[in-house]
Amino acid sequence: MTALLGLTMVITANATPMINIFELGVKKGAEVQYHAVAEHNISTSIRNEKGTLAMYSVKSKTDPNIAYMVEIYADQKAYETHRTSPQYQAFLTASPKILTDHKKRIALVPQFLGDKKVVQTPEIRMNYVVVEVKPEYNEQFKKIVIEEMAQSLKVEEGVMAMYAATMQENPSRWIFFEIYANSAAYQSHRETPHFKDYLKQTGEMLKEKSYVGIHPEFLGNQGNLHFNQP
């Protein structure tokens, strides 16, 4: 995990970036309070913690009481620094009043992490995709995905962030989390030669593919992140 190209200054050559996704149940009637606590946690962390590279609070489109928190840290030390911060402790203190017992951490291994500085607007489009790859194709699939995501960030102005990670317990199961400036940018992305080439090359490699419908609540990142797993 030392192939670091153009990373934000806080990541050193020996760093191991972390990506976490938490699926959280929000109590009915506590949605506004949850949003306020999450916004404070994210905005304060991005402002004060250089090792906290991205934090995104998003909600399910189908269930308003299911929230997701996507977090990226420069390394384990940065994650531990965040966990001891006043804003995270405030989130923990408020949790019993705003969260249900539905709490799930999705343990991930980062494969590609790339972004620009995300400026939240009402038009932002986000994708959360789960892909199961046939094990014999996993390394080939990884190479194709990394090349496609890197190219998209480089040449497409409307592509704001692309993250790819695999499940710790199942390296053939991939999570893609993507941010576009708007739906038009996403549709434009789908028409690019590199995306069409990705679809053509990987079509026979997939066992299954599913989408989690999400919409943004509060988004924060440092920007200019680029990491790929060798």
Automatic annotation (TrEMBL):
Any Pfam family matching the protein: ABM
Record carries keyword Acyltransferase: no
Keywords per UniProt: Monooxygenase, Oxidoreductase
The ABM domain, residue ranges: 18-107, 125-214
Family matches, as InterPro entries: ABM_dom, AI-2_Isomerase_LsrG, Dimeric_a/b-barrel
Source superkingdom: Bacteria
One annotated GO molecular function: monooxygenase activity
PROSITE patterns hit by this protein: ABM
Protein name in the entry: Antibiotic biosynthesis monooxygenase
